[in-house]
Request: fold
Amino acid sequence: MSFFHANQREALNQNLAELQGQINVSFEFFPPRTSEMEQTLWQSIDRLSELKPTFVSVTYGANSGERERTHSIIKDIKERTGLDAAPHELQAIAQDYWRSGIRHIVALRGDLPPGSGRPAMYGADLVALLKKVGDFDISVAAYPEVHPEAKSAQSDLINLKKKVDAGASRAITQFFFDVESYLRFRDRCVAAGIDTEIVPGILPVSNFRQLQRFASLTNVKVPNWMTAMFDGLDHDLETRKMVGASIAMVKILSREGVKDFHFYTLNRAELTYAICHTLGVRPEIKAAPAANRAAG
Reply:
């Protein structure tokens, strides 16, 4: 029986008072490709911004059109919500972001185009370059279940340490579903002298087939208990149980001392908002005007 399965019910019953005000969250979005997707994105940003995240981030691919959309969205988020919007950045526009008041960057090398060979720049190089542009608050990527291109788990850990030594403020993990893999990885980071926060990346999904597809693309383990849980279920029940599984996972992590969570939202607010709610991350309740209180 896995650590997760054995502790699932206890985690779900965790007293919210234990967590109130102690949890920090951040959210990740991607640039929309259509006007309908853009409408969904802004609805999600508006909804999740109520939860006062420490920052939100926006990913992009290698093509220039997507970079331009990302650049525009980053500035629009800051103007519209006041939130610190962190791009997944390359050097070309780092100075422009600095001039625009953007201070937080999620520095990822990103996926290489097919057949492109070795990358010209690795994560540690990018962190060092960004630090020369300005004193950015930089988050870098970490892989509890090892980056698919890494020669070994140890070489992957050495690479993370290089990024931290180059000036990274924290590491955000690839999403995972096996809590034990994250906890083991966190222990290995401490043993390797990596003293920065290892923020778990959470992917709230409501469809198990979608989860399996994401996992197969990213070398992420789907635990046997999770596969068995969704075997033969109709969609509605599957969705409810999927939400329950995500909630239990983040609560177990909070019991293990995790105070910061990064959510890969897929540009949808509903599941992420629900999970944050159970962690006690909720909108501030505005006091009613004095006249209303008197009338009541």
Observations:
- Residues 215 and 221 are 7 Å apart (CA to CA).
- The longest helix spans residues 235-255.
- The beta strands are 24-29, 55-58, 85-87, 104-107, 137-142, 170-175, 197-202, 260-264.
